[in-house]
Amino acid sequence: MFDRTLSNDVASLVAATEDLEQFLSREAVGAEASYACTLALEEVVTNVFKYAYDDAGVHAVRFTAQLTPDHVVLRFSDDGRPFDPLAAPPPDLARPLEERAIGGLGIHLVRKLADAMEYERSGGRNLLTARFALRPKAPNGSRSLA
Amino acid sequence: MSLKIEVTTKAPGYHELVLDGKLDTETHGQLDAALKKLPVNGARGVRLNLARLSYISSMGLRVVMKLMKDLKAQNSILQMVNVQPQIKKVFDIAAALPTETVFASVAEADAYLDMMQKKVLRGDGG
Predict the structure, then answer these.
(1) What CATH number labels A2-133?
(2) A88 touches chain B (CB under 8 A)
(3) ipTM summary value
(4) A28 inside 8 A of chain B by CB
């Protein structure tokens, strides 16, 4: 199992991402699933530090990655204010690019790449679980602009 | 995570940026800075060569999407060449890759630029 506690600075995220990639490579996880897990780590942790805390102090997010026969299971835990990233409305992708607000994409990307995601508030902590198939399928509902 | 950016000017006002590495939380500021330095404002066209871009996150997407908006607002051309499958997948999920910007090869992108430049020289717009 991969287990890290990240603080809210970029260096901490960079180190954890590199270590996660190495862990997944050692566990023979394919490139596509590895990409999705790395992306999830970056997007979720960035999101937590952006929205779950009101002050600029030092905070920590615990992150674990575990393999099951069919999935990589990522778990994120933080003590910020209650914040369910899955409750946020998806970005309006139907609008032309030049009319869209830039941003709000991170969690959307993770949701589309994950097989399943769950949020729970427990013991004063936000707990987010994301499961990624070891043999990824095509993303759900993705589309490109014609 | 690291990113190398090689900038070349292919013709007056036409710039190519070759991105090598990862475009993410750590490195997106480098691309932003490179684009400011060009500058994009007043450029006729920008080409992003993504042959060696192995990873993009939402922070990277934001910089590219802003570039698309800025170029479109001034009727300039954006070309994306050699977009790797894993990068294309992220752009597709974000619905952020207009098909007219994507070129399968450098040769195809060059031919398009040539045609546009000839149009400009002839004075029939472009």
Answers:
(1) 3.30.565.10
(2) no
(3) 0.87
(4) no
